[in-house]
Amino acid sequence: MAGRNLAWIVMCALVGADARAQERLYLPLDPQGSESLEQVDKLLAREQWDRAVSELDLLLVQGGDSLVERGDSFVTVRAEARRRLRALPPAGRAAYALVHEGPARRLFDEGVHTADPQRLERLISEHVASPLVERARNVLASNYLERAEPGAALPHLDALLALEDLPAPDRERLLSLKVWALSMLGRGGEVARTLDALSPEAREHVAPLAARLHPAAARPAPPAGAPVAWVRVEAGYYETEDDPRSAWSFPRADGSRLYLHDGSHAQALDLETGRVLWRTPLREGEGFLRPAGHCRLALAERRVVCLLPGDEGMVGLDRESGKLSWRASLTEIKQRAGLELPGHFSGRPEVVGGVVALTLVTEHEDREVHVVGVDALTGAVRWRVFVASQTGGAPPLPYLSQGEGRLVCVTGLGALAALSPQGEILWVVRYPSQRDVRRQPQGPFPQLGPEQPAGPPERDPSALVRRGFAWVAPADAKGVFAYRLGDGSLGGRIDRVERGRILGASAEGVLALEGVQILRVTREGASALGKLQSPLAGRPWVGGGHAYVPTAAGLTEVDLEQGRAANYAAWDPRFGSGSVWVEAGRVVVAAGRATYALGQPLAGEASGDARADLAHRACSVRDAAQGALQSAGEAARAEVSALRRDPDPEVALRAAEVIGELDRAVRVVRWRPLIKDAWARQVPDLLNRLTHPNPYVRLLALRSLGAIQGDPAVATLLRELLGDDDPQVGLTAAIALLGRGDRAGLPVIARALEADGVEGRVAALTALAEHGEAADTSLVRPCLDDRRPAVRAAAAVAALGL
To answer: CA-to-CA distance for 582 and 547, rounded, in angstroms?
Structure first.
């Protein structure tokens, strides 16, 4: 008996040890690559320079993305081969020159004399250790700027800024050119942050140039207490009891325009006037559907790329017109990236070198973190890199940040990686993760079975690339860490920011928030700047020596030079808090109910012409014109209906909102007598929701109404709803009637089966399968040949049921 117990204890211990091994962080190490590099070391020790150069050149081509150890960090075989080529002693450089200098010189001369960037780009990729690479990057950056192609110049400027031991004068020159490039692109927020990285003398010289290139972006933020300059209200918004004031949009601006999306629509607003420049639906239908998560976007040179919440994927829009360029679901992106495992996007997208990079986390037993690079112009997957994984544990919360020619990926698994714009891992380092903290044994006996990894601390991850360092605050670790961009070595750890987050850049480091305490963080430590009145309630904005931090109580302004925090503005009670963007003399707040800007309002007088006043630069004139048309009621319907087709998006949108309110008034008059008090008690705010201008709000109310059983009068209202302008609302009413044995909505169901939408067809077929009659087979039969598998499957079920 004792022997069996001992065997059982040993077996449990072995199982526990095996499980503990599985819980450890996994990195894609390459033993063969390590052996090849060891062979190179032997060749270098024997001073066989030509063979060493040949082996390293071969590893550049065949090395792959697997990792090898280098001191306290890990690097790809290719990155290590490149580093060793660049670190060759004089005799080794001479051997390298014998092979590479002739071809590199020819490419350089041809590229300079013919102004052909492709030759210089080839030089950079094929002759990585040639001294001509740095010269080629300088020439390319200057040429691209002279040709007004700042987006092409930026990767080369960032690569030069990432060089180790860069002399201060060269750094100032490159940063000045970067300000020029960013100003040409209208990326005012990045202009401000890049100016902050310059010395005061250089900043004084360069700032006027940036202001001339983009004068609107250079305008300072308005003083505290500024009034509301303009408001763009979301007419389809409906406040719910459980989540009354969410801020889901994360806007970005380019000096003259503000871009944002809410999962239903993407839009570009004029920063000065608030006028809608374009507005594009991101899903079928025009209604606003409350998003299931954060709505982030990325600004590429010619595209606005929207990352949709949940598993809906990405949408690429033309930046100038808002027209749809491409759409890719999460499933499609995974297929193009060669990933078949279930997974989801996590964190925010970043743009680097014409590629939108984002993290993808798998959802099976291995928590894998991948970084995927999607072409901003076409939506094609350019590259995909596996960074790290761990078996079991909570889903990680990764975070991406970019700057100075690097992408930094905080995995949330105890590993930090730096990537090139081409998707090559340059280095990986470990940081002390809370996932590595194991449960302590309880009682006198040893703990058997697998040890459980501790859950991550309760904070969102954050990171920032700043002056040669990657500042990171991982979700699974305590403190803020500063890692050198060049090699991943640790440059500082600040434990005072235990569970806080990085807000943005400060003069010598970063700005962080610990609870309600605002801290200036450097590699030497942290110092307090002030306190917020209440917790953070949106994304802050940092730049130009100031930070604007949204809290539940209001907007706080932090003067980074004076070290002072003060109340900047109280929230507009109609809209509440939101994420902040500061540019072109405006402090923009993206709240759930509306997007509005603080600053000096534009003055103007109404002309009396409805169309001209709806398009006026002054928001007050536009609002008054819209209110007057709405007050005119049905007498203005014909005029307003014509304005819905106006080529000006601002005019067309406001006209559509007026028509929506006129239709609502008609529905209220017709349906108020039909709604019983008992229904209103079962479905809160029923009349308001059933008559709401947003069809999605009407649809959700209708579904609640259709669930009321035992009252035949409900069918009367459902029959009224068959004629709703929105096809989904009419179809839902028809399905609810069919479930009650009322076939009055059968023509609506038939129209849905002839429409192109998948969801509508499947819903109609499912309803016929459950409540239809044999005579309905003729409606189902054509759907058996539908090109969509989901429709064919639903049709087969319906045909069998009938």
So the answer is: 9
Residue 316, exposed/middle/buried by CB under 10 A (0-12, 13-18, 19+)? buried
Give CA separation, 730 vs 37, 733, 737, 765, in Å: 69, 5, 11, 15
Backbone angles phi, psi at 269, to 5 degrees: -115, 145
- Residues paired with residue 317 on neighbouring β-strands, in sequence order: 304, 324
Cβ-proximal residues to 309 (8 Å cutoff; 6+ apart), any chain: 248, 263, 291, 292, 293, 294, 295
CATH assignment at residue 268: 2.40.10.480
Query: What token pair was written down for 466?
Result: 């700043």
pLDDT tens column, 98-139: 999 999 999 999 988 888 889 999 999 889 889 999 999 999
CA–CA distance, 191 with 169 (Å, rounded to integer):
19
Contacts of 112 (CB under 8 A, 6+ apart): 120, 139
Q: Are residues 308 and 348 in the same domain?
A: no
Please work out, in degrees rounded to the nearest 5, the angle formed at the alpha carbon of residue 470 by the alpha carbons of 408 and 461: 65
Domain containing residue 651: CATH number: 1.25.10
According to DSSP, residue 522 is labeled E
Taking a C-beta distance cutoff of 8 angstroms, is the pair 409, 359 a contact?
Answer: yes
Number of domains in the chain: 3
What is the rounded CA–CA span in Å between residue 371 and residue 349? 10
Position 135 in a domain: no
Among 473, 522, 531, 474, which Cα is nearest to 502's? 473
DSSP type of residue 166? -
Residue 28 lies in a domain: no
Cβ 483 vs Cβ 493: under 8 Å? no
Closest CA to 788 of 746, 755, 750: 755
Report the SS3 class of residue 765.
Answer: helix
Which ranges constitute the DSSP H helices of 593-636?
A: 610-614, 619-632
Residue-level pLDDT at 107: 92
The answer to whether residue 631 sits within a structural domain is yes
| Cα maximum dimension of the chain | 100
Whole-number Å distance between alpha carbons of 705 and 476: 45
Q: How many CB atoms lie within 10 A of CB 294?
A: 17
Convert 136-165 to b/e letters by CB count within 10 Å (16 or more is b).
bbbbbbebbbeeebbbbbbbbbbbbbbbee
CA gap 242, 343 in Å, rounded: 28
In this structure, what token pair is assigned to residue 73?
A: 């960090």
* Residues 414-468 pLDDT 10s: 999 999 888 889 899 999 998 876 444 444 444 444 444 444 456 889 999 988 8
Pseudo-torsion of CA 689, 695, 697, 700, nearest 10°?
Answer: 100
Whole-prediction pTM: 0.83
Task: Tell me which residue of 658, 622, 652, 667 sits closest to 637, measured CA to CA.
Answer: 658
pLDDT class of 221 with cuts at 50, 70, 90: confident
Residue 214 is assigned to a structural domain of this protein = no
Question: Sheet containing 586-590: which strands, arranged edge to edge?
Answer: 228-233, 594-598, 586-590, 579-583
